[in-house]
Every structure is written in C-alpha cells, then in structure tokens.
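Could you please review the protein record set out just below?
***
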Amino acid sequence: MFYIANMQILNDMELLGQNIRSSRKHRGILQADLAKLAAVRRQVIGELERGVYKGSLQRALDVIRALGLQVTLSPKRFPTLDELDNE
C-alpha cells in the first residue's frame, strides 16, 4: 500500500499501472507499440495499466524496461502513532 498526500491509500498494482500509463503517454507510445517493444501481448499492457495484472513479474519488468524505467525497492514506511491518531 502507498500513502499519498491526502492519506488516500492506493493498491500497489494501481500505482504501478498509473505510472506505466503516464510514462507511456508521455512518450507518445500506443499500448500496441509498447507491447511489441516489450515482447508481450497488448492485453498485458492494459491489465498492468488498470492495476489488475496477475501474470509474471518478468513480463511486468519487461514492460517497465521497454519504457526506459527501472524498479527501485525501499523499506516500507509505516505511519507513526501520531499520524494514526490524526486520521
């Protein structure tokens, strides 16, 4: 889960999908073209962008790399007790 400025919680896959879609559109690439670049079916791109992809991590990474992006892992941040009290 990710917390954003207004404390709305987003599903990890939804956030990943939003980033993939935004990056693809910023580059002016159609889903079908990205699918060819990543050697996956166009449906994989659509599922990733909608946050409903249930396939292999390798395919998702292929799409991410085809966009010229990389995945960075960082420790999960848990809300503090004060933050929880303020909700």
